[in-house]
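explain this chain.
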Amino acid sequence: MKLFRGKEALIQDTDLIKPSIYTPLGTIELSLVVSSECYLPTHCSQLKHGGLLYQYYYDSFDCELVLCNLNHNLFSPQEVEECWGAVFRIKPNAYHQISTCSFSALWKEGYSWEDYGSDTGENLEAVEYENEQYRSHIGTQEEPLIMGKRNQGDRTPKSLALNSAFEKCSFVLHSDQGIEVSMTEINSHQICQVYFLIAWKRKIEEDISTWLAVDQPTKEILKGEDIW
């Protein structure tokens, strides 16, 4: 690992399909786009506690994606059937610069959810999806929290400046298809981090456990694999 640190042994995997999370409502694909070009991982490894590490090692940048199962640290009222976190980190290589990039968690065709709606609030950007049997949430950090991390130098590009309503609205986009987070210029000495959380359970009226489950910080996503 170049961008994450951890103590767990890695088992090399030859499966280099697009990173995905499989839910009862369908498949959610994790995608990386750099300078308008979609990139696939160059390496994949299994982590000791059931997670996966995807590595995107290219001439101009390195990117790593960690998928972690979070069920180990969810307790009532956060109890869900399953919860997964996906953490991207990207860094331009020496003498290179990333002009734009985006990260997304989007439903693959063939999903079975029948209704969706925005469920954003309290620094959480979230979308709810459901059918008669299941409810699922996809979540990420909301714009004010990301801007706060930029100001603290916490893995958010210093170039990120949301000065207009249009910029704020186009920065974190959610829709019936999922959530996409776009970033501006990243210099070679900077690491940019974006994460998503996906949780689901059988549908119970007035139950907000899947919303609570996707409202967690990065350290909670990674700690089950002893990664930071």
The chain has a mean pLDDT of 88.
